């Protein structure tokens, strides 16, 4: 009898409710906009420069403004989410993104173009924090990795869409497409609950339990998880007065090095630049840009699905090590391929090598 009860309990914890799936879908809609912003400049460079008579320096500034705006949005993202909640912060992020995409789509000069890119960057900066945190706070532990990875999946879907349709649609239409998920999220946020953890932080314990019950199902015993959330919140409140300098104590050196190191190396490995100027790189290598971008658009989503499947089976560390090795090998091969481009006889391998390694990078 006890064995049967244990099995029933195990089966119960493996279930995911429709509300949990719907909430995750609405939240990661913003991640699509994130991906669209990353890949937007890859296939629109020549058309934007031609239509608005921009120099290379002006377009480079346009491309980099999303990163600058993202830094500003990221600085305020945690404070905004803690003060106003995840839903309200995402509404603000959607407002920035929609306004920014519309400014780009309707731009008649460089000022409106840059302003739009900057606003989209601020929205993306807010999204980059709130989306994964919200997903992690509403999902049960046994599926948390897969659900959180859906953030990356939708980012790559955004990249794939702009890569593919950038071959056929104008840059203004592409900007409108980038704003569509934000409109979906603006409406969808009315129908999903606030994070149970945030409600507990605000002392709204009854609402926290009600939301948790809806997310886990009516038959699920939420008492242990609700108690765990409350204890965690109390501990975080007790540690809230700790100075940031305490992080730099010797006992935290290992964890701090790993955490900050992974974030820095992820940004400094060069994939952002490669993603933003894909079409140009294909042209420089002598490979048909349209074919290259279409192939890339077909690769990025299956690659993300593979990560979604493997993250809870293999764990984060093996996947990080595998991807780091592949990234290193691809960057070296790209450098060698461009280096021998003008060498007689050997230079013929450049287009093929660049196309293959570019696909591996993405």
The ordered string of helix (H) and strand (E) elements is HHHHHHHHHHHHHHHHH
Strand percent estimate: under 5%
Fill in the CATH topology of the largest domain.
Growth Hormone, Chain: A
The best one-word shape is globular
Compute the number of structural domains: 2
Beta strand count: 0
Report the helical percentage: over 70%
| CATH architectural label of the largest domain | Up-down Bundle
**How many whole angstroms does the radius of gyration measure?**
23 Å
Unreliable sequence segments: 1-11
pLDDT average, as an integer? 80
Measure the end-to-end span.
52 Å
Q: Identify the CATH class of the largest domain.
A: Mainly Alpha
- Count of helix runs: 17
Subcellular location: Membrane
Domain Major facilitator superfamily (MFS) profile: 23-362
Membrane topology: Multi-pass membrane protein
InterPro entries: MFS_dom (IPR020846), MFS_ERD6/Tret1-like (IPR044775), MFS_sugar_transport-like (IPR005828), MFS_trans_sf (IPR036259), MFS_Trehalose_Transporter (IPR050549), Sugar_transporter_CS (IPR005829)
